[in-house]
Amino acid sequence: SYHPSMASALASTVRAGQKNIVVLGTGWAAFRFIRDIDTAAYRVTVVSMRDQMLFTPLLCSTAVGTLEHRSILEPVRPLAAKKNMALLLAEAQRVDTSKRIVYTKPMMAPPGLESSPQIEVPYDKLVVAIGAVPNTFNIPGVKENAMFMKEARDARAVRARIHECFEAAMYSGLTAQQQKNLLTFVVVGGGPTGVELAGELSDFISQDVSVDYPELAPLVSVVLVEASGNVLSMFDSALRDYALKRLRAGRVRVQLSAGVQAVYPDKVVLSTGEQLPCGIVVWSTGVAPRSFVKESGLPRDAAGTRIQADDRCRVAGMDDTVFAIGDCAATGVKALPAIAQVAEQQGRWLATQFNAEAAGEPAFDKPFDFRSQGMLAYLGAWRGLADVVTDKKGGHHQFKGLAAFALWRGGYLTKLGSWRNRLQVPFDWLKTLLFGRDISQF
Fold first, then answer.
1. What are residue 62's phi and psi, to 5 degrees?
2. What tens digit of pLDDT does each residue of 349-375 get?
3. How far is the C-alpha of 216 from the C-alpha of 266, rounded, in Å?
């Protein structure tokens, strides 16, 4: 059902002469856009299923208690209030581009109603930045039995499951093999998220399990499964080899050239025929489109997984009224990777173009140009990899070991969106160093 009062409230805040921008999402691209957009020139309505921006590069650290979850969350409501934006916690379901209306379903039903009413949100310009979801590749059992590492709630679920596995393994009725199976943690995917989670788990086992569960420590193992022949394929071969060496030194068993055929509640079946009994399976193997991308009616790329936009982030055939940025967008001819720095740069660039257009200055005269800032990865035991871009011509320096770990921490610390988080994250690091990790159930 349609809820006119909410739509009227959103529309009534638009002042004469202002264009109404509706932004879908609060991820890297959307958050940077709403942070930079000139709200004196535009009325902005943000529609998202969550009211915070998640700093994803440090998400794995929260799964084992190195950091606390709220330390890497940036609330959107204070920013919206400060900039006089409307924030609607709702799921965007479809868009009518002829009427310029987004149809949404609120996340919470108002009192007295059994279900949330549909809310129509009108726009003059629509910015689609809804991100993506984990890609299960339709492998049997993944959706039902695996855990993911994409949202804050995923990390909280993994953290809770780790606690459950250790407490269950303490039961005296279990055999040593049953305990070992329960304390085998399988991470699928050898990209940055999978490798960093394996590294964090390795630290947790060596630094905390040995103290808190000394009798179980010898039985704990981490298995990293990767379908290709190497991990961290975006780094060069020397750094990849170093990563493998460090992971294996940290008691991480790395299974290369091993795809997953099926995931069961208590085991993973590999393409090699091997079966891995385990207590946890964390799936981190790329991204897939949200349902909105498929159902919106907006043009998609050849693979059908992203909204097709030109090199100025404009969706074709929409008379410059619909734009797509971030992981949900295929921008231009050359596909850009679905990573945070691409999304953030697109959000900043698009806000700059909108601001210039409102000021009567040249806008959208040059295409979006992604400039890589380099790559970072944590391997555990205060070791890491870093490939840092040093100039606009593409020059770069590579680091490994302690130096790369320092760059990893320092680089991400400076990228945190607020001083609140820049204080909380080092405090969490110090607390973990002095007192260990807290994985107690909450």
1. -80, -20
2. 999 999 999 999 999 999 999 999 999
3. 19
Alpha carbon distance 140, 145 (integer Å): 9
Query: Buried b vs exposed e over 125-151: b needs ≥16 C-beta within 10 Å?
Result: bbbbbbbbbbbbeebebbeebbbbbbb
Here the tokens at position 97 are 């581009």
* Rg of the chain (C-alpha set): 23
Beta strand pairing call for 260-264 and 267-270: antiparallel
DSSP code per residue over 340-363? HHHHHHHHHHHHHHHHHHHTTS--
Which residues have C-beta within 8 Å of that of residue 172, sequence separation ≥ 6?
none
Pairing outcome for strands 280-283 and 147-148: parallel
- Relative to beta strand 307-309, strand 329-331 is parallel
pLDDT in tens, 390-416: 877 768 899 999 999 999 999 999 999
**Centroid of chain to Cα 49:** 14
**C-beta separation of 408 from 387 below 8 A:** no
How is residue 415 written in tokens? 């990228």
Among 190, 191, 261, residue whose Cα is nearest residue 224: 190
Written as six digits, the tokens of 14 are: 């638009």
**Residue range 184-222, pLDDT digits in tens:** 999 999 999 999 999 999 999 999 999 999 999 999 999
d(CA 393, CA 242): 27
CA distance 323 to 293: 13
| pTM score above 0.85 | yes
- Confidence bin at 14 (pLDDT 50/70/90): low
